[in-house]
Design brief:
CATH architecture of the largest domain: 3-Layer(aba) Sandwich
Shape: elongated
Largest sheet: 6 strands, mixed
Order of helices and strands: HEEEHEEHEHHHEHEHEEHEHEEHEHH
Number of strands: 14
CATH topology of the largest domain: Rossmann fold
Bound molecules: adenosine-5'-diphosphate, magnesium ion
Strand content: 25-35%
Helix content: 25-40%
């Protein structure tokens, strides 16, 4: 069997045992932002680094883009060591930070041309590349407008274009769609998919949106407390959980105890959780479990308001590997920050 070209090459990003501790500040204890972070990204893949706020995603990206340094561990990007070959790494990568890096008082073209000049392109080349990118990201109409007049979605697209001026082979996008409305978010998703599909770019994006990770990432690394707790394609991670989740809404919550015991006796049913008048159970196969559940409840004349069956989501995956729901993790992180 022929081996795909990229499989013969080294990974585009290779991270091993990164540790980073921020010193104590304002009477707080030191923060171990990265605690042995390890993962690899094959060439041409979109890797999603998924984790709640505070998981260490931005810290990892800053180290990989040479803007910060790990206490220990190693990282290579495009085959280059991020500490020993900083200059080369910077030329090989594009970096779109969490906060926009464009000049709001300059036009789209001016921002792109300046960026081209910084990367050593000639004036003429910079102008040509700027026009190409504005066209590519559907910003041509706004090329000569100050960036402060752009919508959030347009600004974000310009940010991505700025990261591509020097034709890097690896692109880092830190929380690319935070703060965008759903339409602008979907638009940017399409752009990122296109970059990877048509230009073979390797993309590392960080996100705390489960939906974004599911949609965009060919490969996922789920990060929790500075560590990768699970890795794989979203489909594979969900498939590992096997089975479906069946949800029964009871007309009368008082029946939930009886329903629990009836359902637990059905074959292929496990992990039953009752919350109010809702009962959730993991089943081997939703398609066969639903009629069985309805049958036994009907037999006992127990009224049901609704029954739904769903495939496991990334939220279920996160719960499985971290022991808490994604939402709970985000809340805990927000509370920690407010403290
Ligand atoms: N410059 C810094 N100084 C001190 N602590 C920091 C600094 N940057 C990040 N942290 C802390 O390190 C942890 C990881 O942060 P970060 O990498 O920004 O996570 P994420 O991008 O996943 O939200 C958090 O607890 C955060 O408060
Ligand atoms: Mg971040």
């Amino acid at each position: 069997m022929a081996v795909p070209q990229h499989a013969q090459n080294q990974p585009a990003i290779e991270v091993a045992d990164l540790v980073k501790t921020y010193p104590a500040a304002r009477k707080k204890s030191p923060v171990r932002a990265l605690d042995g972070l390890t993962f690899a990204v094959p060439e041409g893949v979109v890797l999603g680094l998924l984790g709640p706020n505070g998981a260490g995603k931005s810290t990892a990206v800053k180290i990989l883009t040479t803007l910060s340094r790990a206490d220990s561990g190693t990282a290579r990007v495009a085959g280059l060591d991020v500490v020993k070959q900083q200059r080369e790494v910077r030329l090989a990568i594009g970096y779109v930070p969490q906060e926009s890096s464009s000049d709001p008082m300059a036009t789209g073209t001016e921002n792109l041309v300046l960026s081209g000049r910084i990367y050593g392109l000639s004036k003429q080349e910079s102008v040509r590349r700027a026009a190409e990118l504005l066209e590519r990201f559907d910003l041509k109409q706004a090329a000569d407008r100050q960036v402060r007049t752009y919508s959030g979605g347009m600004q974000r697209k310009l940010d991505v274009a700025l990261g591509l001026v020097h034709r890097p082979s690896v692109l880092f996008l830190d929380e690319p769609t935070t703060g965008l409305d759903p339409e602008a978010r979907a638009d940017l998703w399409t752009e990122v998919e296109r970059l990877s599909a048509t230009e073979g770019l390797t993309v590392l994006l960080t996100t705390h949106y489960l939906e974004e990770a599911d949609r965009l990432a060919g490969q996922l690394a789920i990060v929790d407390h500075g560590n990768v707790v699970a890795e794989g394609s979203p489909e594979a991670l969900k498939a590992e959980l096997r089975g479906d989740s069946v949800q029964v809404e009871l007309a009368d919550p008082a029946t939930s105890g009886r329903v629990r015991s009836l359902i637990s006796r059905l074959p292929g049913v496990g992990e039953i959780v009752v919350e109010g008048n809702t009962l959730r159970a993991r089943v081997d196969r939703g398609a066969t479990a639903v009629p069985a559940v309805l049958g036994v409840l009907e037999e006992q004349a127990i009224a049901v308001a609704a029954v739904t069956v769903a495939r496991p989501t990334l939220d279920d995956v996160y719960l499985r590997y971290t022991g808490r729901t994604f939402r709970a993790a985000e809340q805990a992180s927000d509370e920690e920050r407010a403290a």
